[in-house]
Amino acid sequence: MPHQYIKKILQARVYDVAKETPLDDARAISKRLNNRVLLKREDLQPVFSFKLRGAYNKMAQLSEEEKSNGVVAASAGNHAQGLAMSAAVMGVKATIVMPRTTPDIKVNSVRAMGAQVVLRGDTFDEAFAHSQKLVDEKGYVYIHPFDDPDVIAGQGTIGMEILRQEAGPIHAIFVPVGGGGLISGIAVYVKYLRPDIKVIGVESEDSACLKAALEANERVILPQVGIFADGIAVAQIGKNTFDICRNYVDEVVTVNTDEICASLKDIFDDTRSITEPAGAVALAGLKKYVAQEGLEEKTLVAIDSGANVNFDRLRHVSERAELGEQREAIIAAKIPERPGSFKKFCKALGQRMITEFNYRYSDENDAVVFAGVQIRPGNEDREELLNELKEHIEEVEDLSDNEIAKLHVRYMVGGHAPASLDNEVVYRFEFPERPGALMKFLNKLGGRWNISMFHYRNHGAAYGRVLVGMQVPENERSQVARFLEDISYQYREETDNKAFQLFLN
User: Are 286 and 157 in contact (CB under 8 A)?
Assistant: First the structure.
């Protein structure tokens, strides 16, 4: 297998349209981690993503008859742009099927290059199913975004460039993983020439299809996929890519949304460029791996894979970055309802900055405050803060990892429910974000039970998030679960969530 791919990579026709991207020193993050961190800047490609390499290389292998039939692909956006540009250069008709949740910047870019865009489904897999239907009906040639030897070879040219650009020792290369085309191409080339270099895949926790496949020793389909990092939101690793990964990838690291947002900020601080969430995934994994392994004075490479992000999503990124870097703690504290209590609370914080403070009168005895507090990176300072607060304040809760607190409570008004409110249950929902999505959700929820609380905030992410309170009698609780399953949106009961109990119940 490796010989086949090495030859394909060496002969890949990517430089007709793609360029050799720089391997930049990330000086600030290197100093902070006490390792030399290099960023492979694929965000600087003409379509702001590495996908151009694989798409063009595959197109270059087509016969004249295949080109005359036209090509089709399913893509969340970056492969679509790579294929659209390749088709435009070659004068080939291209149709791209994209999930409806694809950022507008990617959809508009594909259309601007002359490709026909068809929006279908909420995930890559739904878009893929429709693209196969077009292959059968129209006779188009399907250009797979990752599970094709020529596409893999095109992406493998990145590994070839890295080894040429950095001749010294490299401890590890961190690669974002969606369907596996990028890491397969890099791994097979790097391991053939420099087997001492670790190749480490990085996945978002809510779309970790390679990790799941490696643990099961077979390809699996994830039941649901989170699409904050939409460029790697794939439910199943490819067949060809899995065969390569199980033999040439050393391990897989998973990262959460907050860690991705923090790394997006790191890249901005070092390069003054804004990457997309999937583009920051590799650096997030690198940082996590360094902390876990205690690495020092090593050369580490992270693939900055793309920069196609909707501007409004940066609002969400900015809010979560400090939490991802563990520079902010979210604290709930119960203090006496009397003059001087807030001053005592601030004094207990010492010299730390308060980033946010929310309070609403609830009764004459106690007040519950919601505070954001600036801390030094790492869990040690957060623990120190909590211990210091507990010396002065009887009841303190750390809500830094509480999704209800981060997504809803800090933005809500109205305070506690009246004592007369009974039979309240609380659920948190996620649904694909698009025009009309909230109304569709409300229509599905219907009027069966009285809604006692509702919070929705569109913050630029691909999924809308709603917190709902409903009055459901005890004898109807079992019906709620069946009803919610029929809605088919991802949900979780949060009636016992500490943030809800403290501030809203």
Answer: no
Cα–Cα nearest to 390, from 444, 339, 349 = 349
Residue 317 CA to residue 330 CA, distance in Å, equals 17
Helix axes 149-165, 181-193, angle to 10 degrees: 50
Instruction: Report the predicted TM-score, pTM, of the whole model to 2 decimal places.
Output: 0.76
Whether 349 shows a pLDDT value over 80: the answer reads no
Question: So what's the architecture of 2-49+149-322 in CATH?
Answer: 3-Layer(aba) Sandwich (3.40)
Query: pLDDT tens for residues 369-411?
Result: 777 888 877 667 788 888 888 877 778 888 888 878 877 777 7
Choosing from 109, 131, 305, 400, which is the catalytic residue? 305
- Per DSSP (E only), the strands in 323-433 are 328-336, 354-359, 366-374, 395-398, 424-432
Instruction: Say which residues have a Cβ less than 8 Å from residue 470's Cβ, sequence separation at least 6.
Output: 424, 425, 426, 427, 449, 450, 451, 452, 480
Instruction: Dump pLDDT digits (tens) for 231-269.
Output: 888 889 999 999 999 999 999 999 998 899 999 999 999
**51 carries an active-site annotation:** yes
341 a catalytic residue: no
Do the strands 36-41 and 299-304 form a parallel or antiparallel pair, or are they unpaired? parallel
Active-site hit among 8, 40, 51, 198: 51
Intervals of CATH 3.40.50.1100 along the chain: 2-49+149-322, 51-142
